[in-house]
Amino acid sequence: MMSVSEVGKKLKIRWLLMAYDIAVFLLVVAFMVSAYGVHAEDVVEFWETVFATLLCLLFCRVMGNVYHMVIRYGGVGVYMRLFATDLAALLFYFPLKYVCGLRNIESKTWLIVILLNLLCAVGIRLMYRYCYRYGVRKGKKGEFLRWLLVLCAGETVIKERRNENKRIRVAVLGAGRLGAVLADELLSNDSAAYVPVCFIDQDEEKVGREIMGLPIYAEGEDTLDDLKDMGVQEIVFAITNIVNTNKEMLFNFYRKAGYKVKVYDFSVADIAKSGKRVLREFDIDELLFRQPIVVNNEFVADYYKGKVILVTGGGGSIGSELCRQLAKMQPKQIVALDIYENGVYDLQQELRLRYGDELDFKAEIANICCERSMRRIMEEYHPQIVVHAAAHKHVPLMEKNCIEAVENNVFGTLNVIKLCEEYGAQRFMMVSTDKAVNPTNIMGATKRMCEIIARAHSASGSSVVFSDTRFGNVLGSAGSVIPLFKRQIANGGPITLTDKRIIRYFMTIPEASQLVLHSGAIAKNGELFVLDMGQPIKIYDLAVNMIKLSGLEPFRDIDIVETGLRPGEKLYEELLVKSETLRKTDNDLIFIEKDEPISMEDLQERLDILRAAIRSNDDETVRAAMRRVVPTYKTPEEVNCKAAQAVEMQNAKVVVK
To answer: Do 117 and 191 fall within a single domain?
Structure first.
C-alpha cells in the first residue's frame, strides 16, 4: 500500500500537469484574441465559449486517463491517447455549443483553438520527456535542460535524475534498430545500472548523426579518444546478423582497449523461458565465434508433428534439450526415460509450466539394460520414434569402470534396438560422439560398438530406420569442461588442464539437439551423420578467456595448472573415420559417412566375446575384448605420439588474442 506522501506526490504531478494544460489553453486563446479580436457585444458569450471548450477538453482528458499516464516512459501511446481525447472533446463541444445557444462565435475559430492547443499539449510533453532523458548530460546543454525540468516537474525529479551520475556509462555498438531499442530502454529506466552516451557504427551514412540525442561515432582507433573523453566504461554489442569473424575482431579490439564488453541479446540460459533480450556478459560458447548450425526447422517440425517419441536419457543435458525442441513441434506425445529421477522431474515441471495441458509429456524411470522395464514402457506407449541419448559418457570414470560402460552403453543400446524392432518403431536415432572415431578409451570404444550394432541391424532387413549422429563436445553439459572451469574460477583457482596442447571440437546443447533431430528426420537407413564443426579449439584458450571474462587476469589472479593426460585421453579428437566416403546433405554443415555394415553373424560373435569378458568380472579382460571387437580402438600413446602431425592439431583455432 502506498504511503500518504507517495499518494500526495502522484496527485501533485497530476494537478501540476492539468494546470499546465489550462495555462497552455489560455495562452492559445490569448493568441487567437490578439490575432482576430473579439467584438464588444460578444465578450460574455466569448468567455462562456472559452469555459465550455476548456471544460470539454479537461473532462475528456480526465475520462481518458491522460493524467494517469507516466509521460517520461510513454511512447506513441501517450500522444495517440491525447489525440483521441481531444477529438472526443471536439465532437462533444459542438452539440454543447448549440445546446447552450453559443451561436455567434465561428466554429472554425474554435476548431483552430482546439487543434493549436493539442499541438502545444503534445509539445510540452515532448519537451518534458526530452529534458528528463537528457538533463543529466555534462556541459551547458545539460544545465539548461535541468532548469527546464524544474519548470516541468519540480526539483524532486532533478534530485532523482542526479543519481544517473552513478550509472555505468556505455557505448552501444550498432546504431540500428536493436541498438535504438537498447538505448531507449536504458534511457527510460531510472533504476537501470547503465546509461548510454553514444553509438558506434561502421555505416558511414550514420556516422556524425544522432539517435535520441546520442552521437554516432565510427568504428576504429580514432573513436577510442572520444570514448575516453565521454567517460565510457563498457561497450555493449547490439548488432544482429553480425559475421562471427567481425564479432571476434571487435570483441578483441575493445577488450584490448581496456573496456569491458557485453552483449544485448537473448540469454542462452533463459531464452526458452522468456525469449527476451537482456544485457549480459558474453557466454562462453560465444567465445568460439563459430557460425551456429542452421537447420530446416519447418521440415523437421512437420516430420515430428503428431508422433509418439521416446527419448532415452531424457533427463540429461542433451536428452532434456531434445525434449524441449520436440515440444515446440506439436508431437502427439513425448516420453522421457532416464534412470536418474531428478533430471526428468525438473524437465517435467519445466514443460508443464510452459505448455500446461497442451503437451502430453510422460516421465519414466527405468534402466535401459533392464529388458523387463523397457518392455513395459514399449508396450504402454508404442513409440514411433526412439531417440537414444542414454549412455555413460565420462571418460575417466568409464576407464575405471569398464564393465559398467560395456553393459550400459553396448548392451543397453542393443536392448533398446531389439525392442524397437519387436514393437514396430519407425525410427531409431542414436546420439554418438567424436570420441568414437579411432577411440583411445573405453567410452569411445563402446560408442563405436553401438554405431556398429545400429549399422548391422539397418542392413538386416529390419523395418526400423536406423541413424547415428556424431558430434563433438557440448558446451555446458553436465560434467563438461566449462562448468568445471566456472567452479574453479569461483573458488579462486587454479584452473586445471590435463595438457595445454589439448584441442576439442565444440558445439552448444541446442545445436547438438537440432542436429540429432534434423538428421533423424532425413535419414534413409544406416547413415552416420557428422557435422562440419569448423576448426577445433584449444582448451587452454577457453580457460584464459573465461578468466578474463570474469574480470580477472590469468596467472595473476587465477593460475592455470597442467595435471597430465588422464587414462584413455588423447590430445585431439576426430570427427570422421573415412573422409573420402563423405557425401553432403541439404544442409551444408551436415554430412553423411556410410560405413560398410558387418553381418549379423559377425555382430553376434563380437557380442559373445564381450559377454564372456563381462562374466570374467575383470576390467582389463573387458578392455582387451573391446580391442578385439572394435578394430580402430587404439592406445592413447599410439595416437598422441603422432599428434603434432595430425591435421586437427595443425588447424586448431587460436581464440586468445
So the answer is: no
